[in-house]
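Annotated sample (chain length 175).
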Amino acid sequence: RMKRSGTLVIAKLVAAPVAPGTRPSGPTAAAPTDKSVLIPPPVTPRRESPVASVSAQNPRLEVSATATPDGYRFVMVVTNTSDKLLPLRFTSGQTYDFVIHDTLANREVWRWSSGNFFTQVIRNESIRAESKWQFDVTWNRKDNDDKPVPAGAYRLTAIVTSSPLLQVSTPLNIP
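Output written by the structure step:
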């Protein structure tokens, strides 16, 4: 037993020089007089981390759009597919966003966060193992300037505003 940095360390003697002509016997053998005994560093067992990392498969993002009398209801479900905690880092109070793009004109038509204010804070949020977050908003079929959006082909993009940014898109046809 030895003390290192104020903590107790237990080491196993692996090898020690022996004087010529002598042979140590059993646990009561005399300690060698040479002070160059090799003591390996303590071995700490590897433990599997209880935390998952963001990857192409995790989290899984699903988005849906349902027509309502007032416009469209958008729902994004973010699922942690692992059996570990999934931490996400955010650089503001905003957690999600929804964006509508006109696919023909290739321009943004509407953004849920447009005109909203969010705190500027770095924060960490985690999705528990095999759990889900759900975000839903209702879009009134008006653009960011509060003008009605004409019928046509659009693309809905749902975003988790974490770092790195996570997003999923789906086509949206407005009759």
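Annotation: The radius of gyration is 31 Å.
Annotation: Residues 22 and 30 are 10 Å apart (CA to CA).
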